[in-house]
Structure formats: structure tokens, C-alpha cells
Amino acid sequence: MAKDKEVKSVDERRKEVLRNGAIILSLLGVLTFGEFLVAVIAPPWTFILWIAALWKTFYVVKDYMHIGRVFGGDGEAH
Amino acid sequence: MFLRSALFKGLLGQAVGTVIGVAFVWMLRILFGAAPAFPFDAHREPALVGGAVIGAISFMVFAGVFDDWFKWTRGESTPDHHEPDKDKPGWWRYFNVDYDHKIIGVQYGVTSLIVLGAGGILALLFRIELAQQGITFLNNEVFDLLFIGTEWYQHTSAADLYNTFMSLHGMVMIASILLGVGAMSNYLVPLMIGANDMAFPRLNAFAYWVNVPGALLLLSSLFLGGFDTGWTGYPPLSVRAPIGVQMFLLGVYLVGLSSIFGAINVIVTTLRLRAPGMTMFKMPIFVWAAFATAIIQLTATQLIGLSFQLVMFQRLLGMGFFDGTVGGNPILFQHLFWFYSHPAVYVFILPGLGVISELLPVFTRKPLFGYKWIALSSLGIALVGFFVWAHHMFTSGMTSYLRLPFMYSTLLVAVPTGVKFFSWAGTLWRGKIHLDTPMLFVLGSIVIFLLGGVSGPPNGTVATDLHLHDTYWVVGHFHDTMFGGYIFPLFAAIYYWFPKMSGKRLNEFWGKVHFWVMFPAFLVMTLGQMYVGLHGMRRRIADYDLGPVVENVQFWITIAAFVIFSSILIFLVNAYFTAKRGEVVEGNVWNSRSPEWQIPNPAPLHNYSKQFAVIGEPYDYGHGDEYVNMNPAPSPAGD
Amino acid sequence: MAAHAANYLTKTANNRLGLWLFILSDSFVFGGLLVTRFVLLGDQRPELSQGLGLAVTLILLLSSFFMNRGEVEMAHGNQKGFVRNTTITLALGIAFLIGVVGVEWPLAAAHGLTTDSSAAGAVFYIMTGFHAFHVLTGVFLMYVVLRLGRKGHFTAEKHWPVEAAAVYWHFIDVAWIFFYPALYLMGLVAG
Question: Which of C41, C125, C115 is nearest to B328 (CA)?
């Protein structure tokens, strides 16, 4: 997989990463609206809100904050 | 000359900043119509808190702690290290912002001893009051005679001065211990792992300097009516206490910041700057202790900061976190507070226990028994420590089903602690014991910490704790663990590493006198405290009526406290004369295998002129092969 | 030169670990605030403007998106893209601050939810206040890197301050991901 990336040009890689960022944003948006709807329709279901929050955190921490870099991975991908 | 030092500039900045802060908050409040400008009384507390915050920030700015960071925000680069000014005398660096971890370590250490002295004097004063029944010389008349601004506060009890001294003694000593822990971690960790400095030298300087305004704020509470809450600052008492409590809360907050940033440095340094070949399990054992300590400091400290801020905001803005009448809950404070403050005691003792494990093999000339077990037991104590906090709250009225799990988690701490004792006994077993001064203090630590360990489980067991809670028994137990886990190891460390810091060896005779005065006096004190506790003496009270036997023991506790204090004076005099004209020692004073003893005394400016390589085990005393190769062939990889 | 670059990589790796440790530490504050909220309020929540809550939440999510774009552009050497996206992030950050402190606070106070009215008021102001303080520091950091970036201080290889500001900004977003449901969605409005 790492070798695949090396073949691509810098600009292609950039576009790919930017597209990934947009996908994450739409996922976060969908989850947030989902949370809002759950709160309106079924207030007692707080556990769903917790799961959604953890899910969103997972996306942000992994794809926006690049936690993998702390452990040495993903060094060249950015 | 002193007038141009960072310390003086910072103090000046703090004074100016405080005045500006007071005026600023005062004007803001007039502007927003909080109250008419006069009388000032209505603005006093918010204005003083604002002044204290801005004063502390001004200290840091004026002292120049932020200089390099300001340059970075403007895009200027700065050298990794600022070379010391050759024209200035040697002491100059210690009064200025310096990025060398050895300087910062010594700064931490000296500040720690000064603060220790302040806390000790407070203890002596209120011990006099306890020496006999009926003495109440620390009363409010004396308080008002001694201190300014008497019209600024209302006494909440007749013994406010006693209460303030007792409360301050607790928190000042904690600040002193945190500083001492910082001293040991900062000085020793980079030297031991073969680094030339900490990972973030500027952050390191910040973490030291923020303690100075913090300690000043803490002590300034004395002049603002004090605080009668004990060091725990439980609401609702802390919400009603005089303004002094705000300075106490802020001061502790700053000292806590120091812990957090210091911890980041220790963890990154340990994980990333080790010498080639030094795996985690080949580090000197003290580094493991410092690492485990840093994990607690990094995370738990935030919660005492939060709990104290909640009290501050409740006082300033009427936010009812702990006010039952508007739906608040004072027990919440205790949970947040103890989530830090229990692990905090492991912060206090783990470095000390690390020193014990570090020195024992040197003075028994034997391998450390069960290295990996000791290393992991430090980590184990730190981790289990996160799950025991509510054992301070068995009598607080918290949900009662929580008692049992917290009792068992508390008793679980005895397991990793027991591992340490077992290993120490195993190391001593058939060793060639050399009774130099550091070793005396190590052995003293082990005895005293054992007493502290044995007196602990009765407090952690619900059935007995209901009886013992808030008695002097707890005070005795706590002083045992602190002296065994911190004070005695600290002095062992000072006697041991003093040549590394100064190039001179502390006088052995006076060192031994110090030990033989302090050790028995401490035993009298702690056993006496436990005794009076079992006979009904409560903590934190100014007077008592428990009959002649308790009174007699109380008298001897006071005498013992004075003897301990005088033994520390002996140490200070010894340190002074040694620094002036002590025996100059070169090289490996204690015949240690550790890398910091393979370089000259005092340690050179950038520690190791050449990166050493680890080729053996750290504690294989008596086995012949080396731990470190100080002169390795350059590696072909060239990294 | 190679040694110099390697030195930069090592330092950046150290800095990154340090930053993440700080984030770990700071998340304990936010965790403590969440604990405070659930201990004091339980299954009740303060009465707040739902539309405004959703709006500021989306603003913050969007700002994270643009922050990510800004960082990615810098990492690929596109300085213009970096400046454009970071400026948008900065604006969104300020919009969030105005939304919470400038609009939501007076609105809540007008409905009787003041700092000293009830535990709910205390919890609401302390949580949003702590978070807003973090946003403020994030905005400041972003302003610093934006200014340096305009002057051309960063390159595709060397832009650690940009990464640091971005990671910190996303962390503030994560904190709000928990605070939003805790304040606006979970439980029933106290009656």
C-alpha cells in the first residue's frame, strides 16, 4: 500500500487526503444530526448519544489529529 | 548585581502585576456596574484574585521565562542551549532562567529546602500549642497583631491562627515535596539515561519558575486572614473561609501546573532520549520511579486543579457546585479532590522508593534483587493508585456500596509495595553492607516506611477506619509514609549525589550525627502520634482534654519535632561548610556502576561529551562486567 | 544537511509526543467537568436554545474540516491554500466564540439561567466557559501560525507549529463533541 502512494504525484496525494477530510466531515455531520434526532425522538436513549460521541471522536482522533504519527507511523503520508 | 537577576525582576513584576490586576478588576467591576466604586469592600475578593493571577503571570514575563517562546511566535529561532555567561559569577545562573537540567534541578532542590523550612517552622509553632492542654497562644488576638489587613476578614473560629498554621503546614510541605520530587527527577533522569538535557528545556524552566509565584501566593494567605480548612479545603468550609483561602487555592494551582509540565518532560525524556542499548529494562531503577511518578502527575493533577477552581468560582460568582440549597453537592468536591490527592501521595513516595532501590545495591555491593519486579511495582503502585481515592471518604456520607470496592483496591496497593520490601530484603541479604551516611538514611527509610506500610491497612479497612478516621493515628501513619518515602530518601539522595552537584563530599561525621538525631526523634514523634490517636486525639484541633497520659505523650511529640528540626539545621550547617571548604572528591565516589558516576565531579556543562553505550545490566555488582561503555566505537550506521 | 534534517525529525517526534501527553492531561479536565455535570444534574439538563447549540456545533465541526485542509495544504507545500483555509478556520473559531459567549450566555441569562441561579446554571457556565477559554487559546495559536505562514516560515517538510495548532484545534473539537450532547441533548429539561 505504501508503494502505491509513492507512484502517485504530490498533487494526487494531496487531493486524496483532502477528499478523505471531506468524507470525515460529512460523516461527522451525519452523526451530529443523528444525535439531534435521537434527542428529539427518544430522549431516554442517552447511550446512543454516547456511542455517537465516541464514534465521532474516533474519526477526529484518527483522521484529523493523526494519532498514528505519535507511534511513528504515517510519517511520510502528510 | 542581584537586582538584575531574573528572580528579582520576577518578584518586582509580580508586585507590579498584582497592583495592576487589582486596579484592572476593580475598574471592570465598576464599569459593569457590579457595585459602586466605594467602599472597596464589595470588590475586595475578585480584585485580589485578579491581582494574584495577573501578578503570577507578570512574574513569569518579567523573569524572562517566556522570552524564547515570544521569539518563536515572531518567527525567530533560538539556540538549543544558551551558553552560560562567562563574566558572571557561578551563583548567577541559579538566580536566572537557565535551561540546563542540572541547574534547574538544583533550583528545585534549594527552593524545596527553603519551603521545607517554612513548613517546619509552622509545625513547630502549632506543636507548642499542643504540648500541653489549655495553651491557646495562637489565638485571634495574636493573629490580628501579627498581620495586616485585619479589617478585611472575619474570623470563622477562635483558633484561626492555629488552624491556618496547621492547614498551611500541610500544603506548604506538599509544595516542598513536589519541588523535591522535581529536583530529583530533573537532576537525575537525563544524567542516568545518557541525555544531555531534558526533552523540552524551556518547558522545564517554566515548570520550575511557576513554583516561585505559587509558593509566594500560598504563603500570602497568612496575611489575608489565613484559611481554616485544613490542607484539603473541603467546601462548604472553604467557601466560607477568609480571603486567604483564595490565595491557597491559586498557589496550589500554580504548583500543580509545574507538576503537569514537569511530568510531560520526564515522560518524553525517558521514552525518547535514552542512550543506545538502554532498553526500558536496563534503565537505572530510579528512572522507572520517576517515570511512574510522572504518569500520575500528568493526569491526576488536573482534577485537584479543577476542584479548586470550582471552589474559587463558587466564591467569586456564586456558582453553586457544592451548595446543597441550589442542587450542588459537597461530596463531589471530595471525589474530584481525592482523585488527585490520593495518587499524589504516590507521587511523593515513588521517587524516594526509587532512591532506596538505586542506592541499596551500591552499598551492599550486590545485584538489585528482582529488577523487573521493582520496575513494574512502581508502575503498579501508580496505576492501582488511580482506583483507591474514595477510601478517604468512608465517613463522608457517600453511597455506601462504594465502600467495599474501594477497600479492596486500597488493600491491593500493599502487593506492589510488598514486592519492593521483598526485593530490598533480598538485596540486603548477605550483602557487604557499607554504612556510609547515604546508606544509613536508606536503612532508616526502610524501617520507617515499613511502619507506615503496616499502619496503613487499618485505615483502608472500612470497619477500622470508621473508628480511626480523622484521629491522630492517621497523622502518625501519614508522617511515617512521608518520612520513610520522601524525607529520609531525599537526604540519602542529597548525601549521595552532593559530590556530583558540587564536587565536594558532605562531612561523614556530621551526616551520621544528622541521621542518629533525626531517626530516633522521628520514631518518638510518629509512634506518639499514633498512640494519642488511638486514645481519642482528633486531628486538626487546637486544644484537647484527654487526661495526663495523652498530654505527656503530646509533650514528647513536641520535643521530638524540635529535635527533628535541629537535626535539619545540623545538615544545613554541614552543607554550608562543605560547600565552602569540604573534601574535594573526584570520580566515582561510591564506586557505582551508574553512568553519572563515570564522568567528572561536578557534572560537566553538557553532561556527556560522548554518547555512551549500554552493554550490560545496571546492577550486576560483583559480577565484573560493565554496565556502560563510556567510549564506544562509533556506529557505522551513523545515527 | 542530512544530520540536520534527521535532528528536525527527532525533535518533531519529541514535540508530538509532548503535545499528545498534554492533550491526555487536559482531557482529564474535560472529563472532570463531565463528571461534575452528571453528578450534579443527572438526567436533567439546562434549558438552552437548541437551534443555537446545533449551529455552534456545526460551526466547530466545519472549522475542524478547514483546519485539516489548511494542514494538508501546508504538508504539500501549498502556502496559499494553507493561508486561505486557516483564515476560514480562524473566522469560524471566532464565530463559535461569539455564538457561545456573545449570544448563548446572554440568552440563557435572560431565561433565568445565571451563574448563581442553580447547579444547572453553574454547570452550564463552567463547561462552556472552560471550553471557550480553550477555543480562545486555539484561536491565538492559529493566529500565530497564520502570521508566520504568511511570512513563509513553513515548508512541506518543516511545519511542526502548523501541525501542533491543528492537533490542538481538533482536540478542542473533540471536547465539544462530548459537551454538546451532555449540555444540549442528554436528559430532560429541568422543570
Answer: C41
Measure in Å the smallest separation between the Cα of C187 and chain B Cα atoms.
16
* Alpha-carbon gap, residue C34 to C174, rounded angstroms: 13
The CATH superfamily holding the domain C2-189 is: Cytochrome c oxidase, subunit III, four-helix bundle (1.20.120.80)
B632 — phi, psi (to 5°)?
Answer: -75, 155
End-to-end CA distance of chain C: 68
What pTM does this model have? 0.94
The phi, psi pair for B471, rounded to 5°, reads -105, 175
Chains B and A touch (3+ CB pairs under 8 A): no
- Among chain A residues, the shortest Cα distance to C70 is held by A18
Closest CA to C123 of C33, C7, C18, C16: C33
Residue B181: how many other CB atoms lie within 10 Å: 28
Q: Using CB atoms within 10 Å of the CB of residue B600, give its burial: 0 to 12 exposed, 13 to 18 middle, 19+ buried.
A: exposed
- pLDDT per residue over B556-584, tens digit each? 999 999 999 999 999 999 999 999 988 89
3-state helix, strand, coil in chain C (%, to 5): 80, 0, 15
Residues of B with a Cβ under 8 Å from any C Cβ are: 72-73, 75, 199-200, 203, 260, 263-265, 267-268, 271-273, 298-303, 305-307, 310, 313-314, 317-321, 323, 326-329, 332, 335-336, 339, 639
Residue B451 has pLDDT above 60, yes or no: yes
Mean pLDDT of B72-88: 83
Average per-residue pLDDT in chain B? 92
Q: What's residue B149's pLDDT?
A: 60
C80: which residues sit within 8 A by CB, 6+ positions away? C73
- Can you give the residue ranges of every domain in chain B? 10-76, 99-283, 432-639
Q: Which of C65, C162, C172 to mutate to test the interface with A (most CBs of A within 10 A)?
A: C65
Q: What is the CATH number of domain B99-283?
A: 1.20.210.10
Whether the Cβ atoms of residue B252 and residue B171 lie closer than 8 Å to each other: yes
CATH class of the B432-639 domain in this structure: mainly alpha
Separation of alpha carbons B480 and B277, rounded Å: 39
